[in-house]
Amino acid sequence: MAAISFAPDPGVWLLSTARTSYAVRIDDTGSPCHLVWGPRLTPAAAGELAPSPAAEISSFEGRPPAGEELPVDGGARYGAPSLRVRFADGTRAFEWEPLGHRIHEPAAGTAELALEFRDRHYPLSVTLHYRVHDDTDVMERWTVLRNTGDEPITLLRADSAAWTLPARDDYRISHVTGRWSAEGQLHRESVPHGEMVLTSRRGITSHHANPWVMLDAGDATEDRGEVWSAALAWSGSWHITVQRTSDGRTAFTGGAWHDGTSLPLGPGEELATPHFAAVYTDGGFGAASRAWHSYVLARVLPYPDELRPVLFNSWEATGFDANETGQKALAQRAAQLGVELYVVDDGWFGGRRDDTAGLGDWTPAAKGFPDGLSPLIDEVHRLGMRFGLWVEPEMVNPDSDLYRAHPDWVLHFRHRSRTELRNQLVLNFARDDVAEWAYGWLTRLVGDNGVDFLKWDMNRALSEAGWPSRDDGQDLLWPRYVHNLYDVIDRLRTEHPGLRIETCSGGGGRVDLGILSRTDQVWPSDNTDAADRICIQHGFSQIYPARTMAAWVTDVPNQLTGRSVPLRFRFHVAMAGVLALGGDLTRWSAEELAEAAELVAEYKKIRHIVQHGAQYRLRGPVDDGLCAVQYTTKDRREVFVLVWQQVRRHGTPRPVLRLAGLDPDARYRDTRTGAVHHASVLTGHGIAPELPAGDWSSASLHLMRVEDEVARTRGM
């Protein structure tokens, strides 16, 4: 299981999880260097890998650009640096001086290593932290920097960690790109020679990229091959630099902030970087994803064992026209369908009737809710549902009482325009008074009204990111904004233990391990079109588990795309995550309501498999044909499969799905038809899904292990 050992001769620290090992050493210059990251090794085997003396290289090369645990700006280093500092006298180069190490177990099943260093001359200490756990092959790394002197130090770059991969003939990178309403588009491409930078400069994780990577030697598939993957736990600007070097190595480094920013580190101050977690597997991209999913459930989410409720959200039904009468009518229909959580979206507060006014004035709209929220909340609770509200605490409309009272509270520079996006400006959450104001009205809103759930939105990126009242504000606000955001959420949850939160940023603009460590689920995209969602959800699933992915069933033609697909298809796509409804239920026909109630009931029977089981992507959305995803409980007793086919091509062979992750000795019964199948047949030869005729067809399959057959077979 998880273990950390140190062998003084040859001077190697070995970190091991259940299936993997990672080794590090200090070279003769005092620099921490990578040794190995891959399958599990014994300490003796790791010692055998200690490097031999370096061969002569050209004087133009300097140190190898890959291979250090935290490459610094200093000496003859020409690769991508992880740490760049400027000392008070203008010196920039950093030189390592080792001070020692600590190995300890902060909790049962967890081991930590701290490698301690300082600069050889200047008062800066650097500690590299490593953590491994018994229950996951994901290891965590972060760096702590401390100014031990009397003068300020400027951090020009302070990455969490650098990762070096073993030599291979080639390397391929997997990552996601996108934009608003088209997040999570998966790309796999060769790692270019030189440097490849993935980043967000927007102050949020962003719709356009996500802070994770997967790398393989170009030969990995969904179910086999070596994959090295890492993900950053940070909800602001970030960067990951991948480099393929002239000597055939591949490495990457990553951390918070973006190029051009710096952070002042005053005397006695300390900076702990975000965690940069990583995993190795030889089981392909699917095994890497399942390792991440298990890690998020075991080590990231606040309440991982909960089953997320079926929710209804009012946005696509009512838009800004939220009022007590209309919401009560929707709530009654939602309860009849089996909805468990009713959420009122935008339009419930202040002077809010469109997106031009009212943000910042967080009191119920007098016209729509003349007696406040209590009558609606009481009715929702009477109907047996929990109650939730949409909020956007980090934003303000210029047309609001808050902005008129506090125009200095927004991000801005002197003598520069205040750019409005979506008719709103960004409140400077780095300011403690702004964060305290937000916490104050949020805790009153939740406590005074019995609010069970918040959809926390953030509908634009940062611009004019200035803080004129502080000389160091323009740099300090980038990390402090995120830390104050985290603090407000943490305090709110401590004050209201029953509160649950969905993170949203115009859809998938803020999805990362940092925000997930303090929220319960994610709104991955404002695009609710079922066909588009298949690709968005496929990209989301590379790192993040279905338990965190909210998915709505909405009306057709879809508001964004104009596409119409059957209700059952829309449900089956949404059932791949946390099922929700978002259509105008008052306009649904009796037949649609009956079918919806049937599908909600079906989801409730199998959601424990989807939300807590292992996910297998049986067929990805590579074309407009068959796509399928499977979920299996940890004990392999239950299996649930969702199948979608957008276009049926005449004359093409009937598709067959080979299932995965079953108990090989078992038989499984189809709960709908009663048919019994041998696991060996399901995995080796496959099953042909029963799909309705025509385009936009879908199906689900629920299998349960035949227990007496398992006992009989194993007793032979």
TrEMBL record:
Record-annotated Glycosyl hydrolase family 36 N-terminal domain positions: 30-259
Domain of life: Bacteria
Gene3D superfamilies the UniProt entry points to: Aldolase class I (3.20.20.70), alpha-galactosidase from lactobacil brevis (2.70.98.60), Golgi alpha-mannosidase II (2.60.40.1180)
PROSITE patterns listed in its UniProt record: ALPHA_GALACTOSIDASE
Catalytic activity of the protein: Hydrolysis of terminal, non-reducing alpha-D-galactose residues in alpha-D-galactosides, including galactose oligosaccharides, galactomannans and galactolipids
Domain Glycosyl hydrolase family 36 C-terminal residue range list: 627-703
Record's keyword annotation contains Acyltransferase: no
Family under the similarity heading: Belongs to the glycosyl hydrolase.
Enzyme Commission no: 3.2.1.22
Protein keywords: Glycosidase, Hydrolase
Coiled-coil positions: none
Name of the protein in its database record: Alpha-galactosidase
Keyword Hydrolase: yes
